[in-house]
TrEMBL record:
It holds the Pfam family ABC2_membrane. The chain crosses the membrane at residues 27-49, 61-82, 103-130, 136-158, 170-188, 226-248. It is a multi-pass membrane protein. InterPro entries: ABC2_TM, ABC2_TM_bact-type, ABC_2_transport, Nod_factor_ABC_transporter. It comes from the Bacteria. This is Transport permease protein. Belongs to the ABC-2 integral membrane protein family. The keyword Cell membrane applies. Its main location: membrane. Keywords: Antibiotic resistance, Cell membrane, Membrane, Transmembrane, Transmembrane helix, Transport. It is found in: Cell membrane; Membrane. The keyword Ligase does not apply.
């Protein structure tokens, strides 16, 4: 059964990746907004924002990376919605393939596309002056956190992709996710925020993830932020996977 699943997923993943290569503009579109946001905050607002970092782009980058992922997953929901409406799912289900491989192919395609976008954003940040003394283990830890975060949000994107009734509804869910880093430590220290906003910012997942990435980039000792970030990512991943699979079973029943 496992060989059947992995073989089916690999074949369907190849199909999805070919669609990505034919429409590279989706990756370009995904990276434009985070890069524009990074340019604006560094060169327009950066001089007025006080942080403990020696360079504002160093402080800002972790939050921009999360916004990049939140922007990219909207295309996963969009592609799923189109496949559902075009009848491709029904045709695939009539074939002797593992049912869950259809979803996993979309999820892994999202992971690949988002990783490419993240690399592009990091390269632009390097041109803007981002510097990190982090070694290979720290960079691998950063990659691990971002992969977990991407998988968690991608499985969340699967739910509206399967259940939405319009293209707009399939992708609109990502807007609150893009906005969430603004209510975190991504752009300014939470200590500068008023009481209720500060409480929310300090207890939502983005702040822990941003702080963990920032500590890894700056070679700070691993503290509770990293473990809290991992707990948030794994918890969201498990919950969204369960709901996504339940939604999928209802749609193909």
């Amino acid at each position: 059964m496992s060989k059947h699943f992995f073989g089916d997923t690999t074949a369907l993943l190849g199909r999805s990746l070919r669609h990505i290569t034919r429409s590279a503009d989706t990756i370009i579109t995904t990276t434009i907004m985070p890069i524009a946001m990074m340019l604006m905050f560094v060169y327009v607002f950066g001089g007025a924002i006080k942080t403990e970092a020696d360079s504002y782009v160093n402080y800002l980058l972790p939050g921009i990376l999360l916004i990049t992922v939140a922007s990219g997953i909207s295309y996963t929901a969009f592609r799923l919605f189109l496949d559902m409406k075009s009848g491709i799912f029904e045709r695939l289900q009539s074939m002797p393939i593992a049912r869950s491989s259809v979803l996993w192919a979309h999820v892994l395609t999202s992971l690949v596309a988002n990783l490419i976008s993240l690399v592009v954003v990091v390269l632009v940040a390097l041109l803007m002056g981002f510097r990190s003394g982090a070694g290979v283990p720290a960079w691998l830890a950063v990659a691990g956190v971002l992969i977990l975060f991407t998988l968690a949000l991608t499985w969340l994107a699967v739910i509206p992709g399967l259940s939405a009734t319009s293209v707009e509804g399939a992708s609109a869910f990502s807007y609150p996710l893009i906005f969430l880093p603004f209510l975190s430590s991504a752009f300014v220290p939470t200590a500068t925020m008023p009481g209720p906003v500060r409480f929310f910012a300090e207890h939502q997942p983005v702040t822990s993830i941003v702080n963990a990435l920032r500590d890894l980039f700056t070679q700070q000792p691993v503290d509770t932020d990293l473990w809290t970030a991992l707990a948030w990512c794994v918890g969201i991943l498990i919950v969204t996977y369960i709901f996504a699979m339940a939604t999928y079973r209802r749609r193909i029943a």
